[in-house]
Amino acid sequence: MLKHWHSCIVGLIFFCGGYLHSPLHADDERGVRIDVGSQLQLMWDDLLIDSMQGLELRLHSPRPAEIVIEKDKPWEDSTMYDPTVIKDGEKYRMWYRTNFNTSPFYTGYAESGDGITWTKPNLGLFEFKGSKENNIVWSSGEDRKLGYVLSIFKDENPDAKPEERYKGASTIAGGEGAGMYPLVSPDGIHWTRVSDKPMLTGGLFDAHNIVLWDAPRQQYLAYPRGFFGPIRHIRRASSKDFVHWTPLEFIDLGDGELEHLYKNAAIPYYRRPDILLMFPKRFMESRKPDPDWVVTGVSDIVFMFSRDTVHWDRRFREAFIRPGLDQRNWHDRAIEAGPTLVPTGPGEMSLYYMERYRTDDVMIRRGVLREDGIASIHAKFAGGEFVTKPLVFAGNRLSINYSTSAAGSVQIELQDAEGNRLAETDEMYGDEIEHVVKWKANADVGSLAGKPVRMKTTMKDADLFSFRFLKSDSR
Q1: What is the pLDDT of residues 422-456, one digit of tens each?
Q2: Closest CA to 402 of 380, 368, 381, 371
């Protein structure tokens, strides 16, 4: 019943509010072509797929890498949490909650030249026990009225003022003054709360409530927590100026069974900024692996994404990050990802997440993923194939991000809308982020640009993560 009412109410909200669910590309129901141009196409769903046999969409978890931030300062405690990471030019920058057990609440700052080795600079901004030698960039004040847990982003809005190039939100969780308050900064270090009135109100805000700039749609977005009945959920609001916001409404998760989701970690995918990602904490509130632990519940991290900022694809119901072998992660809120997905090397991207919450060993770890490698179309050894809907591309080359075993392969054929072969490759095997395919008989696929074609891909013991058509200067 709850699931049914969620679908009905969310559908009514978005219909009345003028939000229309339309995919990024035109659909093929009436033979309409899908214009992919030279844009990166991620194989995370079946948007482009007309038919598929013997293959599956597969989620890929990050490889746990090194610990990047440890609790090693006196203003940090076992509730250190909520990392935000951006790649700002050649520098990586992180903001995180340092404490929650005592007042004031602080936000700490760290930086890195490679995303792997991090330092906590002495900034000299806030006094802690008689000294300003610390990395604190925000304080709630002893009365906590300035809020806690900065959600920070670099504002790429061309209309943003230089002194407001970085924006964020501080949160007052509940009670008098509850809500999200706008903050601005010229450098990400020196912050000013620009209003004593919250920009968003209503309900509880005791979580990492995300704000971001949605460049493709030229709008600001907020994704705070909310409760849909008894279920922890995620809400959404938008703004054109970071001042006036639409009313908070629940995001649409489709018809699947509702789960407790919060700490959503919303972030645009840096290689396709029109696609938003979330890595919510999923909370199983009735489980208690450690009978001696004071709080009931256990958490993991899941993945979902959106092509329109409103409707979110949750086809991957399995965990993206599990608590793992470390028993200190098997209690209520022990692990949490932040909005932190950034490139950290050729063909590599990193996601930063908390572990061991509420222990003296609390820390932030780096997880490593292949670029575009959150999900793929996967072929087992027996193999299979998929055929796309009619696509219209720009350019004269095709680049694929793929991986095979030594015995595996990928082969691609371009067809006309009726299925007749126009060009094909030999079997390809290897592991490359950007492999420009070679066509048999040196076929000139540039002559097919602007015309509807289908892409038939045959695979064996392989993964296809993404593809894009390119324009060659030599043509």
Answers
A1: 999 999 999 999 999 999 998 889 999 999 999 99
A2: 371
Query: Which class in CATH covers the domain with range 63-370?
Result: mainly beta
The three-class DSSP label of residue 102 is coil
- Dist CA 137 CA 143 (whole Å): 17
Give the Cβ contact number of residue 229 at 10 Å.
Answer: 9
Q: What distance, in Å, lies between the first and last C-alpha atoms of the chain?
A: 59
Q: Is 285 exposed, middle or buried (0-12, 13-18, 19+ CB in 10 A)?
A: middle
CB of 428 closer than 8 Å to CB of 409? yes
CATH of segment(s) 33-59+375-470 = 2.60.120.260
Domain boundaries defined on the chain: 33-59+375-470, 63-370
Q: Which amino acid is at 279?
A: F
pLDDT tens for 310-346 read: 999 999 999 999 999 999 999 999 999 999 999 999 9
Sign of the dihedral defined by the CA atoms of residues 341, 342, 345, 346, in that order = positive
- In whole angstroms, give the CA distance from residue 475 to residue 473: 6
Q: What are phi and psi of 367, to 5 degrees?
A: -110, 140
- Residue-wise pLDDT for 14-51, tens only, equals 333 333 333 444 444 446 789 999 999 999 999 999 99
Q: Is the peptide bond before 104 cis (omega within 30 degrees of 0)?
A: yes
